[in-house]
Design a protein that fits this description.
Layout: H1 2-31, E1 48-57, E2 68-75, E3 78-79, E4 83-86, E5 92-99, E6 102-109, E7 116-122, E8 126-133
Parallel strand pairs: 1-8
Antiparallel strand pairs: 1-5, 2-3, 2-4, 2-6, 6-7
Length: 175
């Protein structure tokens, strides 16, 4: 019986020591500065804006389908990659990935229209832009005569003097 009591005491002491060591290691692990580096801490993503672009013809106001709408996020005034979308049959392209407080360069390319480009500040949570695309204008060249220049107009006729006005006489050289 004495032997059983000694074994029981040893078992109780070992159990209490194991519990104490576990409690101490649990407390130390929670307060450890190295614990901040372990694991992945959740960081909420920055708020984003709903950016909707509508592309229409400048002449008729009808939507331009399948136009390339390219977003160039700007970081410190420099281009930071791009994201390209195509307009749907209503001429709309929507993106929800642009961070609030940033700037974006919007570029629109459509066959048969002038390329459009403009910088926008994403300062609201809902931004709507309507772009009116124009047809390409005639190209200006310095090698061809263009309309409206003075050299293209016919030379003006000199005014005729009245019939009874005296005719100018040639100047005689001094002697």
């Amino acid at each position: 019986m004495a032997r059983a009591l000694t074994v029981f005491r040893r078992f109780a002491i070992a159990s209490m020591l194991l519990a104490a060591v576990s409690a101490v290691s649990l407390v130390c692990a929670q307060d450890s500065p190295n614990n901040a580096k372990r694991g992945r801490k959740y960081k909420a993503p920055p708020p984003t804006a709903h950016f909707e672009v509508t592309v229409v013809r400048a002449t008729t106001g009808k939507p331009v389908e399948n136009a390339s709408v390219i977003f160039h996020p700007l970081e410190n005034g420099r281009d930071n990659g791009n994201m390209e979308l195509k307009t749907n049959d209503e001429g709309k392209a929507v993106i929800d990935l642009l961070e609030m407080g940033t700037s974006v360069r919007l570029q629109i390319i459509a066959p048969g229209f002038q390329t459009y480009g403009e910088d926008y500040k994403v300062d609201k949570d809902n931004v709507a832009v309507e772009v009116k695309l124009k047809r390409p204008a005639g190209q200006y060249s310095i090698y061809k005569k263009s309309e409206g220049k003075a050299e293209d107009k016919p030379a003006a006729k000199p005014e005729e003097a009245p019939k009874d006005a005296p005719k100018p006489q040639a100047a005689t050289p001094p002697k």
